[in-house]
Every structure is written in structure tokens, then in C-alpha cells.
UniProtKB/TrEMBL annotation:
The keyword Coiled coil applies. GO terms for biological process: Golgi to plasma membrane transport; intracellular protein transport; vesicle tethering involved in exocytosis. The lineage of its organism: Eukaryota, Metazoa, Chordata, Craniata, Vertebrata. Residues 421-770 form the Exocyst complex subunit EXOC6/Sec15 C-terminal domain. This is Exocyst complex component. Keywords: Coiled coil, Exocytosis, Transport. PANTHER family: EXOCYST COMPLEX COMPONENT 6B (PTHR12702:SF3), SEC15 (PTHR12702). Component of the exocyst complex involved in the docking of exocytic vesicles with fusion sites on the plasma membrane. GO terms for cellular component: exocyst; plasma membrane. Residues 50-120 form a coiled coil. InterPro entries: EXOC6/Sec15, EXOC6/Sec15_C, EXOC6/Sec15_C_dom1, EXOC6_Sec15_N, EXOC6PINT-1/Sec15/Tip20_C_dom2.
């Protein structure tokens, strides 16, 4: 049963499927029926489907037949109408044939016209093609004409650009023409011509820039000076300045710029001449002087031609040669400041140009090349300055040179060049500047000392008094209380020398300006130079004055007084330096002034000269001594020469009242000792072979006069009979002979309490021998007198004992 049901179900499904396919065939377009039929053949019941299809066909045939039977009368009527139309169609055919014949006859003329039209069209096409070819050729010819015109007018970079366009853009389009081949062959020659002409322009530019480096450098240094002045103004008025550009910024913005920096510039203007402007007018920038377009054009031309490296090497080589020429100083550069200025201007002009080339071209010069040139320039410049500055003997010229070097260094530093070595060299020049200052001040001091009257300065009114006190730091309450007229203790050279020392310090300070030194360094430099001025220059001048042959005691006394006051003023010089450098003297490593030592040494030299001078004067008086060594009786008073000598000493020591106590006392003691020694030598000299007791007594009167002078206290400050001790040797010797106290001398000799302790046996023997010779020759009959014989024996006995003392002393 179940199988029967399943078969029945399958049969129903197959029938439904066949019905669907038949409907699809009826409703589907014939071109798309293939898939439907394929599904029938894919199935297994196509036999049954064919049966169904035939049954459907028969069904449709029956329907068609029914329909035809229904419309048959209409079909008959249609056939009748069709037969009638056939006749009309034959007539139409005949008419068409006739019309065609007529049309053929008429078309022959049209064909001829069409052939003519065809020829015209062909000519028109040929003309159009010719116009197109000419349109391609004309730009080439125009570009070539433009090229020749640019070459003629020396616009070489545009000509090169035109040549490039012609070669790569226009000529390839018409390369098959013969004139184009000629142009192509001529292009390398044109390139070479452009290359040579542009190089010629560059050579002219290099020659011009070499000649005008002086003017370019002068302009750059003027701008640097203006900027420095502006910086000084801004630093003095910080509230006004909102900000300050660096020198590099200023130089970059205001310095070398080019009027026509484009390589397409139409003209090569080279170097322009600029008239000198007044100081009030604005200084022209170097961009007003230089046109760098020849360099740019040549660089671009060589770059386009693929020879940039050749151009760079040539440019650098030529500029190196020019640098060596610029760095060669003229032989007479040291004679004037203008010589140095021109030398610096040329160097600055050279490097200003190179710096501009560095910043406006890409790779023509590089920083390594610039640094190499600068190192060479720096070494040669420093060597030249060392050589030529050594010839300068004028401190004003050295100072001006220093200011010029500072401006030179600041200018190049503004362009980024290192200038530390220049400032180091300036410190060397500072030593030379100090030497030239010392030489100049040596003359100044000599003039002051030579023209001084070596007398205290008289003042008659308050105005003069204040003027001198304003020039020299001097305070004396007692002098201020004195009425006018009155006198300062020192002479005019004191305030003059003091003010000249201050002027020297100012001159040293001027050199230290703008050297970028610290206050301590400036202070140290000033103090060292001032010490040289004091210890060497001023000291030598004072020593020369003191050692002069014609210098008098009054002058020497005044020099001692003057140097004493100058020594006291040294602390004010210390304060003066401290005030201008703002470096306290207590600061570590601060150099102290040696003025005190200088003036002490000068004073000591003057004191020694006083002692020497006094001794010389004493010697001159002693040369007037005229003793009668054979006189039997002494005179009634001291010798005239000695009285005059004592009078001279009294008047001289009266002048010593302003001297320090020790100086006057030493001078007095030295004079008395020298007088005592000289008198002793006078008594013992070999030329005096004989002397009498009367001559010895006269000599004793002179010694008593000296002792009286010593007791009178010519110089205050001596204690007791200190000054008389200068004559103690003479006194004891004369007392021994006049009193003839040989027994005491011989008995007490060698004891500390001996009355004649200062009498030397040798001295006594010499004098005794002279008196013995006198006794022998005084009277030929003396030997017959008992007293004379006894005295002679006594002399012989004393002489023998003295020789014994001398021998025992030597043994």
C-alpha cells in the first residue's frame, strides 16, 4: 500500500512539473527556451513530457482551426486587395526606373564637381599641414633669434636658459629639418661662449672688488662704530631701550645686501662709487656699494653647464690670492694711523664680501673655507701688528691704534669671526703702550723737576690756597690758622708731579676701555703700570736731580721735604685708583702701589747727597787751611777758615728746620765726624814733617771752636754732649801732647777707664816723631841746655815705649 501511495505522489509531482514547464514554454521568448528544455532532458520522465506536449499541441491546433474558420471571409477579401496592389506596384517600379535613369544623367556633373572638391580638400589639407609645421618651426626660429639677441646684449644667464629650452623643448619637435641640425651643432659652441664671457665678467668683478675692498671695509667699520655708539646710548638709558639686537643681527639686516641678487639681472653693475657722506648723514650700507649679480650669474651658468665644481675651485683660488695681497701690510704702515686704517679696511672688506657670499649662495664657499682664510688672516694680521706697532713711540698713536684694533675686532666679530687672539694681542700692545707712556712721562717729570725753584710755595690769598689744596691732598691745621701771606712746606713740583701721576692713571685707563676686561684686571693693569711709573720713571728722574753736580743743599733739603709729602699722598692715589676701577684694595691679588718705597729711596738718596755735599763743602774750607806748623807761639783766636766753616755749618743747619729730626741730626753728626777726621788727617799727613807745640796749640784753638759749635746745639734733639763725641779723638790726642801727660797714658793704656782711651799709639808716635824732629833742628845749641836734653831724652823714651805698645798689640 505504501509503495502504491508513494508512486501515486511521485506521479502527481511529475505531472505538476510538466505543467509548469509547458506554461513556461508558452510564455517565454524563443531565444530563452533552452534552459527550460534542458530541465526536461535532465529529468527521467521526458517520454511522458512528450506525450503531454503533443496533447497540448493538438489542443492549440484545434483552437487555431476554430479561429480560422471564424475569420475566413476576411482572408478572401485580403487576397483580393493584394491582387489590386500588384498592378500599382508595377507602375511604381517603372517610375522608379525612369527616375533612376534621369538621376544618373544628372549625377555625372555632380561627380565632376565632387572630384574638383576632392582636389580642393587635398590642397586645403596640405596647406593646413604646412601651417602646422611652420607653427612648430617658427617658435624654434624665434627662440634662436632671441638667443642671439640675448648673447648680443650680454644677458648670458637668460641666454643659457633660452638655449636650454631650445635644446630640450623646441628642437626635438622639428629635429628632422636641416636647419635644426645646424642649430644642434652650434649649441656647444654657444655654451662655451657663454661660459667664457661669464668668466670674464667674474674676473672683472673680482678685480673691482679687490680695488674697492677698502671702501667696503670702511663702510662696515662705520656701521659697527654706529652700532657701538647706539649700544652705549642704550646702556646709559636702559628704560628707553625695549631690546637690543646683537651685532650679527644688525649686520645681517643692514649690511651686505644686493640690489639685484637674482641671476636674471639684466645688467652687471659691479662696484658703485659712493661719495663721502657727512658725519651727520646716515652711513651707506655695503649693499649700496656692491652688486653681486655677476657672481650669482656665473655660479648659475656654471651650475647649469655642469661645471660648478670648476667654478668654485677657481673662485676660491682667486680669492685666496687676493687675501694674501690684502694681508701684506705696506712698509710704512706704522708711520700714521691712516696706514693702519686702510690696512684694516681692506681686510674687513674682504671678509664682509666672503661672509655675504657664504650666506647668499649655496656652497660656493663654506664655513670651513672661511675659517681657514680667517685663521691665515688672523695670524698674518697679528704678526704685522706686532712688527709695526713696535715702531710706535707716540702713546697717542698707540692708543688710537688700540681703538682701531678694537673697532676692527668688533666689526668682524659682528660677522661671526672669532677675535679672541686680537684682544690677547692688545694686552701685549698694552705693555708697549705703558712703555711709551713711561717715556713720555719721563720727559714730563724732567721738565717739572728742571723748572722747579725748590722753594716753598708762597700763597697770598685764600683762592690760591684752595687751588693748591685742590690739586694736592694736604692738610695742616696750623698752616690754615696762619695769616696770609704764608707758605706751603713743599715746592711746586709736588702738586705737579701728583697731578701728572693721576693723568698717567687716566691714560692707562683709556687703553683698558672696550677690551672686555673685568674691573679686577683693569685695576691690576693700572696699578702695575703706575708702579712702573713710580719705581722706575719718577725714581730715575728724582735720582738724576739729586745726583746733579750743581745741586745745592737747599735744593736737596726741599727734595727731602717734597718726597715726604708725596709719600704721604700715596694713600690718596690708592683711593683714586679704587674710585675709578671700583675694586677695593682689600680684594685678593690686588697689587699695592710702591710709591712709598720710591719716595723713601729718593729721600734717602737726597739725605746721602746732603751728607756728601756737606763733606765736600767742609773739604773745600779745609783746603783754605794755612797752618804755620813751625810757629813758636799760638794765635789769639781760631783760624779764619775754621770760623768761616763753622758759620757756614750754622747757617746750613738753620735751613734744616723743616727736615725730619733724624735727618738733620744725622747730617750734623756726619759733618762733625767728617770735620774731625779731616782735621786729624791734616795733622797727621806726611807732608807735615815737623810741628811745634805752638802750632799744636793753635790747632787746639780750632778744635775748641769746633767743640764750642757742637755744644751750641746747631740741630735740636741731641742728648747731652753726644755731638761733642765726634771730636773726642782729637781732644784726647791734643790734651795728651799739650799737657804732656805721657805717664798717665802709658800707665793706664788698655784700661776701660783710661783718660786717653781714644788715642791710638800709632797716631801718638807719628805726631811725637814730628815734634822730636823739630826739637832736634830747632837750635843747634839745644844740646848744651840741660832742659832740652832732658826733654829730648823723654821724647825718645816715650817713643820707645810707644813702639813697644804697638809691637805688643800686633803680636
Amino acid at each position: 500500500m505504501e509503495r502504491g501511495k508513494m508512486a501515486e505522489l511521485e506521479s502527481l509531482e511529475t505531472a505538476a512539473e510538466h505543467e509548469r514547464i509547458l506554461r513556461e514554454i508558452e510564455s517565454t521568448d524563443t531565444a530563452c527556451i533552452g534552459p527550460t528544455l534542458r530541465s526536461v532532458y535532465d529529468g527521467e520522465e521526458h517520454g511522458r513530457f512528450m506525450e503531454k506536449l503533443e496533447a497540448r499541441i493538438r489542443n492549440h491546433d484545434r483552437e487555431i482551426e476554430k479561429m480560422c474558420n471564424f475569420h475566413y471571409q476576411g482572408f478572401v477579401d485580403s487576397i483580393t486587395e493584394l491582387l489590386k496592389v500588384r498592378g500599382e506596384a508595377q507602375k511604381l517600379k517603372n517610375q522608379v526606373t525612369d527616375t533612376n535613369r534621369k538621376l544618373q544623367n544628372e549625377g555625372k556633373e555632380l561627380i565632376i564637381a565632387m572630384e574638383e572638391l576632392k582636389q580642393c580638400r587635398l590642397q586645403q589639407r596640405n596647406i593646413s599641414a604646412t601651417v602646422d609645421k611652420l607653427t612648430l618651426c617658427l617658435p624654434v626660429l624665434e627662440m634662436y633669434s632671441k638667443l642671439r639677441e640675448q648673447m648680443k646684449s650680454k644677458r648670458h644667464y637668460p641666454a643659457l636658459k633660452t638655449l636650454e629650452h631650445l635644446e630640450h623643448t623646441y628642437l626635438p619637435q622639428v629635429s628632422h629639418y636641416r636647419f635644426c641640425k645646424i642649430m644642434v651643432d652650434n649649441i656647444p659652441k654657444l655654451r662655451e661662449e657663454i661660459k667664457e664671457v661669464s668668466m670674464s665678467d667674474l674676473k672683472d668683478f673680482l678685480e673691482s672688488i679687490r680695488k674697492h675692498s677698502d671702501k667696503i671695509g670702511e663702510t662696515a667699520m662705520k656701521q659697527a662704530q654706529q652700532q657701538r655708539n647706539l649700544d652705549n646710548i642704550v646702556s646709559q638709558h636702559p628704560r628707553i631701550s625695549g631690546g637690543k639686537k646683537s651685532k650679527k643681527e644688525v649686520c645681517a639686516s643692514s649690511d651686505l645686501e644686493v640690489k639685484n641678487t637674482s641671476p636674471m639681472s639684466e645688467q652687471d653693475s659691479g662696484i658703485l662709487d659712493v661719495e663721502d657722506e657727512d658725519e651727520d648723514e646716515e652711513v651707506p650700507g655695503a649693499q649700496d656699494l656692491v652688486d653681486f649679480s655677476p657672481v650669482y650669474r656665473c655660479l648659475h651658468i656654471y651650475s647649469v653647464l655642469g661645471a660648478r665644481e670648476t667654478f668654485e675651485n677657481y673662485y676660491r683660488k682667486q680669492r685666496r690670492k687676493q687675501a694674501r695681497l690684502v694681508l701684506q701690510p705696506p712698509s710704512n704702515m706704522h708711520e700714521t694711523l691712516d696706514g693702519y686704517r686702510k690696512y684694516f679696511n681692506q681686510i674687513v672688506g674682504f671678509f664682509v664680501v666672503e661672509d655675504h657670499i657664504l650666506h647668499t649662495t649655496q656652497g660656493l664657499v663654506n664655513r670651513a673655507y672661511i675659517d681657514e682664510l680667517w685663521e691665515m688672516a688672523l695670524s698674518k694680521t697679528i704678526a704685522a701688528l706686532r712688527t709695526h706697532s713696535s715702531y710706535c713711540s707716540d702713546p697717542s698713536l698707540v692708543l688710537d691704534l688700540k681703538n682701531l684694533i678694537v673697532l676692527f675686532a668688533d666689526t668682524l666679530q659682528g660677522y661671526g669671526f672669532p677675535v679672541n687672539q686680537l684682544f690677547d694681542m692688545l694686552l701685549e700692545i698694552q705693555d708697549q703702550y705703558s712703555e711709551t707712556l713711561l717715556k713720555k712721562w719721563s720727559g714730563v717729570f724732567r721738565n717739572i723737576l728742571d723748572s722747579d725753584n725748590y722753594s716753598p710755595i708762597p700763597v697770598t690769598n685764600e683762592e690760591v690756597y684752595k687751588k693748591i689744596v685742590g690739586q694736592f691732598p694736604f692738610q695742616d691745621a696750623e698752616l690754615e690758622k696762619q695769616p696770609f701771606p704764608k707758605k706751603f712746606p713743599f715746592s711746586e713740583f709736588v702738586p705737579k708731579v701728583y697731578n701728572q701721576i693721576k693723568e698717567f692713571i687716566y691714560a692707562c685707563l683709556k687703553f683698558s676701555e672696550d677690551l672686555h676686561l673685568s674691573s679686577t684686571e683693569v685695576d691690576d693693569m693700572i696699578r702695575k703700570s703706575t708702579n712702573l711709573l713710580l719705581t722706575r720713571t719718577l725714581s730715575n728722574c728724582l735720582q738724576n736731580v739729586i745726583k746733579r753736580k750743581n745741586v745745592g743743599l737747599t735744593e736737596l733739603v726741599q727734595i727731602i721735604i717734597n718726597t715726604t709729602h708725596l709719600e704721604k699722598s700715596c694713600k690718596f692715589l690708592e683711593e683714586f685708583i679704587t674710585n675709578i676701577t671700583n675694586v677695593l684694595p682689600e680684594t685678593v691679588h690686588t697689587t699695592k702701589l710702591y710709591g712709598t718705597t720710591t719716595f723713601k729711596d729718593a729721600r734717602h738718596a737726597a739725605e746721602e747727597e746732603i751728607y756728601t755735599n756737606l763733606n765736600q763743602k767742609i773739604d773745600q774750607f779745609l783746603q783754605l787751611a794755612d797752618y804755620d806748623w813751625m810757629a813758636m807761639e799760638p794765635g789769639s783766636k781760631a783760624s779764619d777758615y775754621l770760623v768761616d766753616l763753622i758759620g757756614f755749618l750754622r747757617s746750613t743747619f738753620a735751613v734744616f728746620t723743616h727736615l725730619p729730626g733724624k735727618v738733620a741730626q744725622t747730617a750734623c753728626m756726619s759733618a762733625c765726624k767728617h770735620l774731625s777726621t779731616s782735621l786729624m788727617q791734616l795733622l797727621l799727613e806726611a807732608e807735615v814733617r815737623q810741628l811745634t807745640l805752638g802750632a799744636l796749640q793753635q790747632f787746639n784753638l780750632d778744635v775748641e771752636e769746633c767743640e764750642q759749635f757742637a755744644r751750641s746745639g746747631p740741630v735740636p734733639g741731641f742728648q747731652g754732649d753726644t755731638l761733642q763725641l765726634a771730636f773726642i779723638d782729637l781732644r784726647q790726642l791734643l790734651d795728651l801732647f799739650i799737657q804732656w801727660d805721657w805717664s798717665t797714658y802709658l800707665a793706664d793704656y788698655g784700661q776701660p777707664t783710661c783718660k786717653y782711651l781714644r788715642v791710638n799709639p800709632t797716631t801718638a808716635l807719628i805726631l811725637l816723631e814730628k815734634m822730636r824732629d823739630t826739637s832736634r833742628k830747632n837750635n843747634v845749641f839745644a844740646q848744651f841746655r840741660k832742659n832740652e836734653r832732658d826733654k829730648q831724652k823723654l821724647i825718645d823714651t816715650v817713643a820707645k815705649q810707644l813702639r813697644s805698645l804697638i809691637n805688643s798689640h800686633h803680636s
